[in-house]
């Protein structure tokens, strides 16, 4: 039997935990939530997705003593000058919820017709071997798309029901 490597996920999001375990368990990783180690959410004071992901990963690794994986992601909508951007998770205010964020986005775009709702979904992943890792692995990617006028689908979380990916051939 192959050794299992424990990795702390610097997030309390159960959807992300499920997805990372599905992706990484075949490679021998057991992805555990930061709450299992008493890690609390850090304030996202960075000005970019990369900075915020690094803050989260460093704290999770520092408290847990384990390698950490963190992400920061969100939508950048052209008609809204890049909003919600790094504030995507808290766009709808407190208390935070996907439903509030989605409704706030739809309200902000209510005067924009189909074809005027372009944007992109950004995701940054950071992997740290230890809290002072001088060479973290950083992966950054964006997907172009359009914000839909109405939610669709039953899978996913966050802005997934409103983001229509553009498929390029």
TrEMBL record:
The keyword Aminoacyl-tRNA synthetase does not apply. It catalyses: dITP + H2O = dIMP + diphosphate + H(+); ITP + H2O = IMP + diphosphate + H(+); XTP + H2O = XMP + diphosphate + H(+). SUPFAM superfamilies: ITPase-like. Its EC number is 3.6.1.66. It comes from the Bacteria. InterPro entries: dITP/XTP_pyrophosphatase, ITPase-like_fam, RdgB/HAM1. Substrate binds at residues 11-16, 73, 157-160. Its cofactor is Mg(2+). Transmembrane segments: none annotated. Keywords: Hydrolase, Magnesium, Metal-binding, Nucleotide metabolism, Nucleotide-binding. The active site is at 72 (proton acceptor). Mg(2+) binds at residues 43, 72. The keyword Nucleotide-binding applies. Binds 1 Mg(2+) ion per subunit. Pyrophosphatase that catalyzes the hydrolysis of nucleoside triphosphates to their monophosphate derivatives, with a high preference for the non-canonical purine nucleotides XTP (xanthosine triphosphate), dITP (deoxyinosine triphosphate) and ITP. Seems to function as a house-cleaning enzyme that removes non-canonical purine nucleotides from the nucleotide pool, thus preventing their incorporation into DNA/RNA and avoiding chromosomal lesions. Belongs to the HAM1 NTPase family. Homodimer. This is dITP/XTP pyrophosphatase.
